[in-house]
Amino acid sequence: MRKAFSGIEGLDEITNGGLPYARPTLICGGPGCGKSTLAMEFLIKGAKEIGEPGVLFSFEESEDDIIKDFLSLHPDLPGLIEKGLIYIEYVDMRLEGHTQVGPFTLDALFLRIDSALNAVKGRRIVFDTIEALLWSFPDKAFLRNEIQRLFTRLKEREVTTIITGEAGEHALTRWGIEEYVTDCVISIDHRIVEQASTRRLRIVKYRGSAHGTNEYPFLISEKGVSVIPITSSGLDYSISSDRVSSGLPDLDTMLKGKSGYYKGSSVLISGMAGCGKSSVAAAFATSVCASGDHCLYFSFEESPSQIIRNMGSIGIDLQHWVDRDLLTIKAERPTMNGLEHKLFMMISMVDEIRPSAVVIDPITNLINIGSGLEVKSMLTRFIDILKTRHITILMTHLNGGSEDLMETQVGISSIMDTWIALFKSRTVVAHTRLIEIIKARGMNHCEETRRFVLTDRGIFIDEIEDAAHE
Length: 470
What we know:
Number of strands: 22
Radius of gyration: 28 Å
Number of helices: 14
Largest sheet: 9 strands, mixed
Helix content: 25-40%
Strand content: 25-35%
Structural class: alpha/beta
Strand order of the largest sheet: 5-4-6-7-3-8-9-10-11
Oligomer: single chain
């Protein structure tokens, strides 16, 4: 089946190549869900990126209002209109001052559609929103026939069509008709989860094409619309046998070969509070920067200045690498935005900075804005994206206590390549930090539990039996 480029980031992946070419697609949802924005993105990106002119038929807003609405997302919209790449036609459906004579048909609308498409040689068209037009038809059977006539006419002209519709109580749309005469139906909604705003998109049907069937988060930002598939992108990425140091010579030795983690692999550092997880993460970041590569550090708990100060107490100078533009620390509270915003933000920064390694400290704070399954799905997607780009990722995970050594609240441990656990052994007079490599796929590694020591000169790892003779 021939597909049409949607222009909406991530949607072509979900739809296995794009929207149905020269066929109608319905986007339905409640107020504020973003259906008009998705439809407009389809027109604007089609015009800008592949040179397909588009026509918008608006039944609710004038051309001036539409331009004002979308200037923040697409400041070049007036220029596209001036160049003849976008054509906006406002259809006033108010009945005041009009008298109906005979049956109501779409013949007059067909003439306006032909005129608009001919004016810009349009290959795409959007009808927003269809309800304003449908109110004029009291007979549903006649209504369905007229809509079918409209779509048949557009198919004959090989014009790819999107219509937007309001969500209904007992059907996808108020009239419960549009979805039956369209080839693709996309349902979107806007919900509040744990006081965090989130939008979701679902492909309800797509005739003649394989497509994703899950709910997918999508984001409307200053860069446009992005749909974020949260399932795995596949396991066919290439791998590397090169190593990247952990930043701790003693830990590299425990990983055998004195070389550290595999480049492009995923590393999990878990443990209870105060075990030294962030210290291991900072040591790794320093090692990446010392080799001349860029490290991107996402902190969901501490500010950059606090991280830099605290790591300085154990001999790790992160400020040096920040000053040399080799370390970027992005810190924010997880509750500021929903999960889809977090994932989009992280992917955008990876695209912009192109780091060799990424640190997330800690991933457990994301539980505040999503369930364990949602966070796991988000992180799985992010890990897959980084692996396809051979970017090493290290994540820290806060466990509730030493009894939770083999459990992770996010449930991400099973997909990690290397899992290192930190914990404390309590005695009458002191706590002793301990470290253990739970797993390290593809490499021989030390299976002993060893002592993990933080000093003002750095981090050291001792064999426990040797420590007993000090």
